[in-house]
Amino acid sequence: CVILDVQAACQDTTVTQELLKEGFHRDLLVKVELGVVEADAGGCAVAARTRLPPGIYVDPYELASLQRHNLTKAVLIPDVIDVEAPEYLATDLLVLLYLEPDPRCSRCFRAALPVHGRYHRPAEDSEEALVVLKSPEVLVCCCDNRLSAECWKPVEVEAPCLGKDDVPCQWYSVTHKPASEELILQIPVGLRQHSSLVCVVTLLVTVLCSSLILAAVCKYGHFS
What is the pLDDT of residue 175? Predict the structure, then answer.
């Protein structure tokens, strides 16, 4: 009975994620409600560690601009990202997203991260590619060690705990209950049977534009 009670108590932390906006450029909103921290979580730093699949990426230059304006805080692993690579040449991206306290709830934290869809190969019979986002891992670092040993376990995180002079510290992970197991992003793709038509139209447009440019140069150009 004691084991069951401990397991039930450790399932109180919940995490939800939501994709805002439409199209290739979205905002990933992550919300966490802690349930195993005594009193309130005002003295804790909370982060969500998530692995983004090759179908989406975070623009490091955009992220740096947002961090300079204190609009978000995140660590990318690796920190060098090819934003031009298509989905089939890209790799997974590990993101540690620091969450901000929600003023409406003492145990609630949230943050948004801009993500972008990559180019996908044309499909056979569908005009959409599905990118699946797994539920993130919730990490917590508290200043006064109020974490329950039954619910939290130490984890290795090469990142500072905010508010502690940006030095590496001990993070803890909890087994949470996500509101939904997966979040699916639908990215528009072309159909493979249209490849020939696209190639022909592209070639004709290229020839037409080149001819117009050449005609303009011959008519208005000044040759010495």
Answer: 64
